[in-house]
Amino acid sequence: MKTHLNCPCGEAIVGQNEDDLVEKAQAHLAEAHPGRDYDRDAILFMAY
């Protein structure tokens, strides 16, 4: 299960599980990178 993601901007995102990680990553994108949107598969592809 992937629960960690390092955004290229330097933000480290950690979730309790994959669903939580995707939710937190999408919230980070909306706040810090408006206009950028990644689906679940793309986020989990970049996660570890």
Keywords for this structure?
2 helices; alpha+beta; globular; 46% helix; 48 residues; two-stranded antiparallel ribbon
Explain this structure.
This protein is an alpha+beta fold and 48 residues long. It has one domain (4-46). The protein has helices at residues 18-32, 40-46; strands at residues 4-6, 12-14. The chain has a two-stranded antiparallel ribbon with strand order 1-2. A hairpin with a 5-residue loop joins β1 (4-6) and β2. The termini are close together. The mean pLDDT is 98.
Structural class: alpha+beta
Uncertain runs are none
Strand runs, count: 2
Q: How widely separated are the two ends?
A: 8 Å
Binned, the helix content reads 40-55%
Strand and helix layout:
Blueprint: E1 4-6, E2 12-14, H1 18-32, H2 40-46
Antiparallel strand pairs: 1-2
Q: Could you give a quick summary of the protein structure above?
A:
By secondary structure, the chain is α+β, with helices and mostly antiparallel strands.
